[in-house]
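Field guide to reading this record: the first block holds the primary sequence, the second block holds the structure written as discrete tokens, and the final block holds curator observations. Each block starts with its own label. This record concerns Aromatic ring-opening dioxygenase LigA, catalogued under organism Isoptericola sediminis.

BLOCK 1 — SEQUENCE
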Amino acid sequence: MTTIARTTSTTPTGNRGVRIVGIIALIAGLVMIVAGAVTWATVSSQLSAQNITVSEDASFLAGDEVDGPFSAYAQAQIIDQHALDATDGLTYAELDREDPRRDTAMNASFLRASLFTSVVAYGVSALVIGLGVLFGLLGWSVRSLAVEAPPVKTAAEA
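BLOCK 2 — STRUCTURE
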């Protein structure tokens, strides 16, 4: 009986494509982190430029400058409360078209929508920053797992 010995090569074969994907993911992660941070800073500076202060009777952050997601949310909530107090608990849609309080409800609704838009922008910015970190980590991991192939020997060297 003849025994045939087989050898399995464990020499790294390398995969240039995997390394390139890792680099792309790493770069995309960095771009996302920077874009998210720039958006966060822009929204903060624009809110701060409006010189809005959270109303003293707000349930939280009373007296705080509106320059972040929590202060914007707090101000939006107290605007709603003030509008409902001024309209006896009726919303814009519930007020008669000729009711003079309808303008108050409408302005309150517009202000709240603007503040909630900034809250959403903060959320999206945080999401993009988080995804950027994740992309960066995945890119770094993929790149570090892709082993470079050893140099190919010519027939003369072998």
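BLOCK 3 — OBSERVATIONS
The chain has a mean pLDDT of 89.
Residues 16-145 form one domain.
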